[in-house]
Amino acid sequence: MNHTGRSRTERELTEALAALAGGIQGTPDAYRTARGGWLRRERRRRFVVAVVVAVVFTLATLIGLWVLNRAPAHSGVIFTGTGACVPYGETNGGVKIASARSLAGT
């Protein structure tokens, strides 16, 4: 009985959809028009993505340059810029240099 009800429902749906589809007349260039619209949207989407990537890259570059520009011009305590080793006990710009031996406690 359930099988009979299902086939009747399927038959009625098929008839209803066939009646609806029979009344629709497509234009000959409908596919071409729809595809053209899709291609336009696709090009616009790609253009927008390219612009967003360019803006983000430019913004990141400008922020990086701004941060580097705000760094102090004098050399830091760790790097003297001379490349020479400073013996233990001597000072480098007022800061006493520690050796591995003094840090180990010997």
Order of helices and strands: HHEEH
Count of runs of 4 or more consecutive helical residues: 3
What Rg, in angstroms, do the CA atoms define? Answer: 38 Å
Question: Average pLDDT value?
Answer: 78
Largest sheet: 2 strands, antiparallel
Percentage beta strand: under 5%
- Name the shape in a single word: elongated
Transmembrane segments: 47-68
Keywords: Membrane, Transmembrane, Transmembrane helix
Structure description:
- By secondary structure, the protein is mainly alpha-helical.
- The protein has a domain at 26-68.
- Helices cover 62% and strands 4% of the residues.
- It is built from 3 helices and 2 strands, in the order ααββα.
- The chain has helices at 2-22, 30-69, 100-104, and strands spanning 91-92, 95-96.
- A two-stranded antiparallel ribbon has the order 1-2.
- A hairpin with a 2-residue loop joins β1 and β2.
- The longest helix is centred in the middle third of the chain and has 40 residues, at 30-69.
- The chain is elongated, with a radius of gyration of 38 Å.
- The chain crosses the membrane at residues 47-68.
- Keywords: Membrane, Transmembrane, Transmembrane helix.
